Fold this protein.
Amino acid sequence: MEQKQDKKEEAFQVAQLPEACCEKITEFERELNAMGYWNIALVAYQKEQ
């Protein structure tokens, strides 16, 4: 039995976040670096309407 999924192409863009959210993301990246996790970038995307 073969299942076909109709995949509609969806567009995403980098999310426009409030400054407080950007600061939290930066803070979390620093915590990851302190734990030895390097080369990790946290990025938020939002679906285009």
